[in-house]
Amino acid sequence: MKLDCKPARRVVRVASVVSLPLVVAILAGCGDKEGAPVATQTAAKVNKQEVTVHQVSHLVSQQRGLKPEQAEAASKQALERLVDQHLAIQRAEELKLDRDPRVLQALDAARRDVLERFYLERVAEAAPRPSAEEVRQYFESKPNLFSRRKVYSLQEIAIQVAPDRIELLGKKLQGSRNIGEFVESLKRDGIKFGVTQAVRPAEQIPLAAIDQLARMSDGEAYLEPTPTGASVTVVVASRLEPAELKQAEPVIEQFLHNERKRKVIEDDRRSLRAAASIQYMGKFAQDASSRPAVASTGAAVPATAAASAGMTSADILKGMGIK
């Protein structure tokens, strides 16, 4: 028995994003052997309902960092997950859960989230990538993050204290001869605290704190307010491990690009609000002058456009090759 290979070529273009083994199985449909698999866009049937290759492909594509040798196993796992999902959905429909007001609200919310996310990703595409000169200028403007980069051994003390006692706490820290004396004063005053040890390179420290930390000598400490009280950071030791421009270029470029995406999205929000007619009703009605120009919306910025307060260790280790 011979099979027509034309449909197989059309399917191969779709299935190639799923996994090489699946492509091989589809291509096998053009063989002359009896019982050879037939090319199809259906991966399985669950009580006569199809699970498609497109669905498998989409689910596999959600797995970041998937290696080529893991593709076959990932495709099989994705298919089994979809089979279970279809069975649950079929049973839910039999129970008429798809008509439950809570389900309808959740489906509507999911639809809005997906549309917003894809729209914002489309908006973020307008953000230009930084030039080589802009990358170089950023590198030179942040010496404590790159050319004078340090790795710090830190002692961090998380203190639970009322906001009106933070100033007094700072004076006690300044008046202590060493951090041990300060900790003893916390114990005497019955103040709750916890101590942790950490080794952090400069890129794992918020950008706003890097310059301050770089000026400190070993043994010095600083205090800053937190939502639950205050945090004291002690520089136990530090060592110089500079990064060169060539190492830093990829991560700086991505960081600046993300910043531009965030800015483009913020500008678009303001533009949309300025052009729209928005009227708050009932208990949400209030003086317009007290309402922020752009309200925060939970799932506002897609992951690809989100800008962090500092560069993450994963970015640096991957982009700069520093261990």
Written account of the structure:
It is a single chain. Helices cover 47% and strands 15% of the residues. Strand 5 (221-226) and strand 6 (229-240) form a beta hairpin. The termini are far apart. A four-stranded antiparallel sheet has the order 4-3-6-5. Strands 1-2 form a two-stranded antiparallel ribbon. The chain has 323 residues and is of the alpha+beta class. It is built from eleven helices and six strands.
Write the layout of secondary structure elements.
Elements: H1 6-15, H2 20-27, E1 42-46, E2 49-52, H3 53-61, H4 71-94, H5 101-124, H6 132-141, E3 150-160, H7 166-175, H8 179-188, E4 192-201, H9 207-215, E5 221-226, E6 229-240, H10 245-275, H11 313-320
Antiparallel strand pairs: 1-2, 3-4, 3-6, 5-6
Helix pairs in contact: 1-2, 3-4, 6-10, 10-11
User: Which structural class is indicated by helix and strand composition?
Assistant: alpha+beta
Query: Which consecutive residue ranges, at least 5 long each, have pLDDT under 50?
Result: 1-32, 295-323
**Largest sheet entry:** 4 strands, antiparallel
Overall geometric form: extended
* Average residue pLDDT: 81
Biggest sheet: strand arrangement: 4-3-6-5
* Helix-residue proportion: 40-55%
Distance between the termini: 58 Å
Q: What letter string, H or E per element, gives the SSE order?
A: HHEEHHHHEHHEHEEHH
Number of helices: 11
Radius of gyration: 28 Å
Strand content: 5-15%
